[in-house]
């Protein structure tokens, strides 16, 4: 049986497959040991959602645990508005819609649908500039692309991975000191 994939790890895997492995190296350490300012800001931005105090509206589910047996996914959704039937994923600052963001939204979508919720809209919300970006509901091609990514995550082996250095990505990576 395959392990469940944490939804939050999908974006990390797209950024760099090694980051998912290296994150597990630090699992037993306090986050302050390896998180930089951006990660700490992200944690603070999610604190109200994690505690369920972002909004008092009863139709907005906050920090909702979700799962999909079909895709072996598990995680949490920032906000699901039951009236508008929309998922909102909050990010500190969105400068570009990365593939990892889209796949993370697809994972949340499939989890909610598998759990019996109706989802009509997906949004990324950039907190610093208060901008909202619509993400299309995945069609057939996007679903197949998403399934290929999940297969790559399930088949990933650190022993068979050849590190491909990308100076721009590596300079932003909190694990750069541990990587080749």
Identify the notable features of this structure and list them briefly.
180 residues; alpha/beta; Lambda Exonuclease, Chain A; 6 helices
What is the count of β-strands?
A: 6
Give the mean pLDDT. Answer: 84
Give, in order, the helices and strands.
EHHHEEEHEEHH
Q: Give the uncertain stretches in residue-range form.
A: none
Helix segment tally: 6
The Rg value, from CA coordinates, equals: 17 Å
Which percent band covers the strand fraction?
15-25%
What profile does the largest beta sheet have? 6 strands, mixed
What can you tell me about this protein's structure?
- With 180 residues, this protein is α/β, with parallel strands linked by helices.
- It has one domain: Lambda Exonuclease, Chain A (Alpha-Beta Complex), CATH 3.90.320.
- It is 39% helix and 21% strand.
- The protein is built from six helices and six strands.
- The chain has helices at residues 7-15, 17-25, 37-50, 99-114, 140-155, 167-172; strands at 5-6, 60-68, 73-81, 86-91, 121-126, 131-135.
- Strands 1, 2, 3, 4, 5 and 6 form a six-stranded mixed β-sheet that branches.
- Helix 1 runs antiparallel to helix 4.
- The longest helix is centred in the middle third of the chain and has 16 residues, at 99-114.
- It is globular, with a radius of gyration of 17 Å.
- The two termini are 32 Å apart.
